[in-house]
Design goal:
130 residues; alpha+beta; single chain; six-stranded antiparallel beta sheet
């Protein structure tokens, strides 16, 4: 996928610099823009979701949304594990984990029907507003 911000810069540059891209150049740029937008906003079937630890946006069959990742929940035992009463120690293989609450949801979490990538976060240079 083309980096969305790189594409925005190319579109801005083409418009503001009054560059003559020609018909073929313009068609190529607009085709890339359409594909990039589609990649960012289009929901995909859950069975195509990445299972490499990347956080994604998921759609549930009840119409709700969550942010999750495939992996193991993060957990640190207090006092070197002596006083831990967490049932997380019984989790032996990765599954869906709620990114907000670090809750292990399991391997076959049926309510998820679709997914899409999260948008690119703001850079440190962005101070909000334009």
């Amino acid at each position: 996928m083309t980096d969305p911000m790189e594409l925005v810069e190319r579109l801005d540059y083409s418009a503001t610099a009054n560059r003559g891209l020609g018909r073929d150049g313009l068609v190529t740029l607009l085709t890339e823009a359409a594909a990039c937008i589609r990649d960012l906003v289009e929901w995909r079937p859950i069975d195509t979701a990445p299972k490499d630890g990347v956080v994604i946006d998921v759609w549930r069959e009840d119409g709700g949304r969550d942010t999750v990742f495939w992996g193991m929940p993060f957990h640190e035992c207090g006092e070197m594990g002596r006083y831990c009463d967490s049932d997380w120690h019984r989790i032996r293989s990765p599954g869906w984990v709620c990114n907000t609450f670090n809750e292990f949801l399991g391997r076959n979490h049926n309510p998820f029907t679709h997914w899409r990538p999260l948008p690119t976060p703001p850079s440190k240079a962005d101070k909000g507003g334009a």
